[in-house]
């Protein structure tokens, strides 16, 4: 696969283009655990942060945790400034964003109050012609609606142009296919840690093969 073979480009953010330092992630889960009166192990923190089991809400329920209570606590403990300072851009992501031509969008589960500061800190705003942060009203990946909103903003679509969506999770692949796009799965953690192999139209460990 070459990105140049596509007319437009859609990307996920966390785990795909950027990642947060582990110390930040561990600290957030320590504080969330204090709010909920329980402790999250390192494995549990990684599973939820990266969505390793697919649906985070189903995982929370299987651990006896109410998802609404968890997300309320989680968002209350995420500090936009500290999150931005603790987030780094993968070098291969920087290369692909500099190289792609044509309409380019970002579709992320990362909430707007966090996404903006991260893009500011990493000087990424100019790389995207549209940014869609998923909400209850847009739906959550693998629902295609967030991707369709981005395509509407870009005035593109699978019926008019060839595009792909690149992400690190199963939901990203599902959203791409449900929206009629090619799916690029970026496996940054390795199959062993994920515990499964995620299929996609293209499977890469970095964006360099797209160049």
From TrEMBL:
<dbReference type="GO" id="GO:0006281">
    <property type="term" value="P:DNA repair"/>
</dbReference>
<dbReference type="InterPro" id="IPR050155">
    <property type="entry name" value="HAD-like_hydrolase_sf"/>
</dbReference>
<dbReference type="InterPro" id="IPR023198">
    <property type="entry name" value="PGP-like_dom2"/>
</dbReference>
<dbReference type="InterPro" id="IPR023214">
    <property type="entry name" value="HAD_sf"/>
</dbReference>
<dbReference type="InterPro" id="IPR041492">
    <property type="entry name" value="HAD_2"/>
</dbReference>
<dbReference type="InterPro" id="IPR036412">
    <property type="entry name" value="HAD-like_sf"/>
</dbReference>
<protein>
    <submittedName>
        <fullName>Phosphoglycolate phosphatase</fullName>
    </submittedName>
</protein>
<dbReference type="Pfam" id="PF13419">
    <property type="entry name" value="HAD_2"/>
</dbReference>
<dbReference type="GO" id="GO:0008967">
    <property type="term" value="F:phosphoglycolate phosphatase activity"/>
</dbReference>
């Amino acid at each position: 696969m070459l990105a140049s073979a596509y007319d437009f480009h859609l990307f996920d953010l966390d785990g795909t283009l950027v990642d947060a330092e582990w110390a930040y992630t561990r600290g957030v889960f320590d504080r969330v655990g204090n709010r909920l009166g329980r402790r999250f192990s390192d494995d549990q923190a990684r599973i939820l942060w990266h969505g390793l089991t697919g649906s985070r809400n189903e995982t929370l329920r299987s651990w006896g945790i109410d998802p609404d209570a968890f997300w309320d606590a989680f968002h209350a403990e995420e500090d936009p400034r500290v999150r931005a300072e603790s987030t780094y851009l993968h070098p291969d992501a920087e290369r692909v964003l500099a190289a792609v031509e044509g309409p380019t969008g970002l579709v992320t589960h990362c909430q707007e109050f966090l996404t903006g500061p991260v893009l500011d800190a990493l000087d990424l705003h100019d790389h995207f012609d549209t940014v869609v942060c998923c909400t209850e009203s847009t739906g959550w990946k693998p629902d295609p609606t967030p991707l369709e909103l981005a395509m509407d903003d870009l005035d593109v679509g699978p019926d008019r142009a060839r595009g792909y969506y690149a992400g690190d999770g199963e939901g990203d692949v599902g959203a791409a296919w449900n929206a009629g796009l090619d799916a690029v799965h970026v496996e940054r953690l390795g199959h062993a840690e994920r515990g499964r192999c995620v299929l996609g139209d293209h499977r890469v460990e970095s964006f360099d093969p797209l160049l």
